[in-house]
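Lab notebook: predicted structure, single chain.

Context: the supervisor wants predicted structures on file for every construct in the current expression panel, including those that have not yet been purified. This is the next one on the list. No modifications to the sequence; it matches the entry in the shared construct table.
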Amino acid sequence: MKDILKETKFLMKKYHLTANKRLGQNFLIDNIAIEKIVEASNISCEDIIIEIGPGLGTLTSYLLEKAGKVIAIELDDRMIGILKDRFTLYKNFELIQNDVLKVDLDSIIKENSNFKTVKIVANLPYYITTPIIMKLLEENLKIESIVVMVQKEVAQRIVAIPGSKFSGAITYSVHFYAIPSEVTLVPKTSFIPEPEVDSEVIKLDIRKNAPIVLDNKELFFKIIKASFMQRRKTLLNGLRNGKILKNKEEVKEIFKKLNFTDNIRGEELTLEQFAQLSNEVNKLIS
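Prediction complete. Output recorded below exactly as produced.
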């Protein structure tokens, strides 16, 4: 088993490197966590792995041993030289220097269509977790799964059952596109420098078909967003404040039809109930 802590300290000293707080950098030094990530990704030589934020390349080295190809997307200039030095002899390694939010992932996947399956692996900075996850889901990429490490509280919201107390807007969005599951907890002591909170590795298995029938997908997500803009507000007020429906009586009429109470909150609804609500609102505004 590799001594990841020793390796990380060596690389940081060799390249005169410190973690960039602005980019949310914390270097993973936990062998068990890395092995769990690789195991959950279920990698074979027929897979292409897109790794977001490889950093020093600690996880990358494990991925390269199993995958047909690894495409690493890294923003930090300082990491580019390290990654090139470490993996220049690997024929199955490709490095892209860019912000993943600006990368045309669909084109990259199409250019590598000779591989059977595309999988995403990432240790995401806390400050940009949600935008990256939603980009991966909303662009309808031909990927099989996403294995990602995120802040523990964010992980709880993502894997929560829609309608439970941990539900948030991201809960419903993720469940629409994927089936989320927990992989492993990663304590803050597993990183240098040590972050203020614990992390968790989760897996999103991408759905082949939507779990609900929607008349207006854009409206569905607009309603969900409005429902969680102010968590203490009722769903009724959320719909009005979000300018979904201005007439309170119209909202009440829809609620009556769907057997919703007037004081119901967004986090109490299931995915199916949000779909029913969206479809009823769509009938009214169409």
